[in-house]
Design goal:
Pfam families: Radical_SAM (PF04055), TRAM (PF01938), UPF0004 (PF00919). It catalyses: N(6)-dimethylallyladenosine(37) in tRNA + (sulfur carrier)-SH + AH2 + 2 S-adenosyl-L-methionine = 2-methylsulfanyl-N(6)-dimethylallyladenosine(37) in tRNA + (sulfur carrier)-H + 5'-deoxyadenosine + L-methionine + A + S-adenosyl-L-homocysteine + 2 H(+). With 525 residues, the protein is an alpha/beta fold. It has 17 helices and 21 strands. Helix 12 runs parallel beside helix 13 and helix 16 packs parallel to helix 17. The longest helix is centred in the last third of the chain and has 24 residues. It is globular. The structure holds S-adenosyl-L-homocysteine, iron/sulfur cluster and FE3-S4 cluster. The site of S-adenosyl-L-homocysteine (SAH) has 17 residues, from strand 15.
């Protein structure tokens, strides 16, 4: 019997009761009478720890195990035959890329992708914990999915991603949302085949959240979204411990992939015809710090730029780890784009100190000066938090003046959101929400002005656009991004999708540009 026949002949049975409603109610009653400790000892199959700053800080640099032997056991292949999966992704590019990995694994198990919720046999919510509103969205979705689960008892509902690394979230799901079948953490993605299989055959919620964080799993399958742009993880985790941020707890310690593994992946993507690579890491320019060899992001970029791929970006860099060698390499240009996303968070040295960012306003401005000296045409964008605990009006003004001084062309702006388990969440805060919202509005007004100004400069100029597809608003219009990440809309035949073309800009809006096709297929480099 060949593999296909074997898969077709396999009968998948599940032990889910057909009367899932009474099962859910029963579960709920049992859960209500259990203490938190009982719940945890009952449901946690592996070690699970609350985000603990002291413990997290004592993480050791070494002890990173790299596994090259990922394989999906024979018993799990075919488990999804004739079935469909859907993954809802929240959060950053890292999460979006994890979704590609999970999709790759599920497809190797025989599942087919679907975008239609009602059609799915397995739905995973790949969650983000960065701010409260990100979490609220997920809890809203968990609630929305309940009727579907009642209708389709065999549906597997899973919660993964950063929220599942938080104890409070897991407890809340255990207590209030027993219709969820599976919870797994960011360190457990490679365990998906076992977990899905367990969830399919178990009556109880399957929870596997490892706080173990020292591993790198290579050779995971990836079902990449699209054939034009690709993400490549170069490192995982974050050791910066900014006082407001949950990421070091949800993603574990900094650990770099080996240069040869990254270079091989990028070469492979180039050979497949991808046009743009974004190197990913939570603190991407800490790359190499944990390796035994003296090799940093600058060295990696210097090797990658020789690969025949038109555009290479990286995100997100931390000002503190932006070294001179990296600047020197970026200045070589070529396929290394002249756009750097460099989160500043605040323009006040006092706020930066309590955020534990480990640089001052002056340090940041000095770094910007060095970058501009080496790459005169560089575009800088940033992230900013307003309303950090006890931020004064004067300190906020310093943020506004920094935005002016640097001339950021775009910024992601956020109201500070206290995250349980982080140091700043325990601090008193004398700034009202009303004040924070008002500051955000003022900041956004300035950021919009800066963006609009930078966009106006493009009118009459010709730019290279990597065409990604039809524009969201009008299928007759195509859209794509410039090297500096400006979104350009223009009319052209669909045959240019996936190519880099020259477009003359005729109109500028605050965040987008309108243009006319000058020439199809630009020679790159
Ligand atoms: N690793 C990246 C991105 C982290 S998350 C970096 O260090 O820059 C993306 C952005 O979310 C951060 O840059 C920060 O501006 C914002 N952010 C993180 N934690 C936050 C919190 N608790 N409240 C509000 N914004 C936050
Ligand atoms: Fe969070 Fe970024 Fe700071 Fe790391 S460097 S703790 S990811 S804000
Ligand atoms: Fe969110 Fe986790 Fe990314 S908290 S921003 S999905 S690393």
């Amino acid at each position: 019997m060949n593999e296909k026949q074997r898969l077709e002949s396999e009968q998948i049975t599940t032990t889910h009761s057909s009367d899932v409603k009474s099962e859910v109610d029963e579960n709920l009653d049992r859960l209500k009478n259990m203490s938190s400790d009982e719940l945890i000892s009952k449901y946690f199959q592996t070690t699970y720890e609350v985000p603990d700053l002291k413990k997290a800080r004592s993480r050791r640099k070494k002890d990173v195990d790299i596994h090259y032997d990922f394989d999906i056991a024979e018993e799990f292949r075919g488990l999804g035959q004739g079935k469909k999966f859907l993954i809802r992704t929240y959060g950053c590019q890292m999460n979006a890329h994890d979704t590609e990995v999970m999709a790759g694994i599920l497809m190797q198990m025989g599942y087919a992708p679907t975008e239609v919720t009602e059609e799915a046999d397995i739905i995973l919510l790949n969650t983000c914990a960065i701010r409260e509103n990100a979490e609220n969205k997920v809890f809203g979705e968990i609630g929305h999915l309940k009727p579907l689960k009642l209708e389709k008892p065999d549906l597997i509902l899973g919660v993964c991603g950063c929220m599942s690394q938080e104890e409070s979230v897991v407890n809340r799901i255990l207590k209030k949302h027993p219709h969820i079948d599976l919870i797994f953490g960011t360190h457990n993605i490679h365990r998906l085949p076992n977990l899905v299989s367990e969830a399919q055959f178990s009556k109880e919620m399957v929870v596997e959240v490892w706080s173990k964080e020292g591993d790198i799993i290579e050779n995971l399958p990836k079902a990449r979204k699209g054939k034009i742009k690709a993400w490549v993880n170069i490192m995982y985790g974050c050791d910066k411990f900014c006082t407001y941020c949950i990421v070091p707890y949800t993603r574990g310690k900094e650990r770099s992939r080996l240069p040869e593994d990254i270079i091989q992946e990028v070469r492979h993507l180039a050979a497949q015809g991808y046009k743009e690579i974004t190197l990913l890491g939570q603190n991407v320019n800490a790359y190499g710090k944990d390796l035994d060899i003296d090799y940093r992001l600058g060295d990696l970029m210097d090797e990658l730029r020789k690969i025949d791929i038109p555009r290479i970006r990286f995100t997100t860099s931390h000002p503190r780890d932006f070294d001179d060698h990296l600047i020197e390499v970026l200045a070589k240009g070529g396929n290394l784009v002249d756009h750097i996303h460099l989160p500043v968070q605040s323009g006040s040295s006092d706020i930066l100190r309590v955020m534990a960012r480990r640089y001052t306003r002056e340090d940041y401005l000095e770094l910007v000066r060095k970058i501009r000296a080496a790459i005169p045409n560089v575009t800088l964008t940033t992230d900013i938090i307003v309303g950090f605990p006890n931020e004064t009006e004067e300190q906020f003004q310093e943020t506004l003046s920094l935005v002016e001084e640097v001339g950021f062309e775009a910024a992601y702006t956020y109201i500070y959101s206290p995250r349980e388990g982080t140091p700043s969440a325990r601090w008193e805060d004398n700034v009202s929400m009303e004040e924070k919202k008002e500051r955000l509005q003022r900041l956004n007004k300035l950021v919009n002005e800066k963006s609009a100004e930078s966009m106006k400069n493009y009118v009459g100029k010709t730019v290279k656009v990597l065409v990604e597809g039809e524009s969201k608003k009008d299928p007759d219009v195509l859209s794509g991004y410039t090297e500096k990440s400006k979104l350009v809309n223009f009319r052209a035949p669909k045959s240019v999708i996936g190519q880099i073309v020259e477009v003359k800009i005729v109109n500028a809006k605050t965040w987008t540009l309108d243009g006319e096709l000058v020439e199809a297929a630009v020679e790159v480099n």
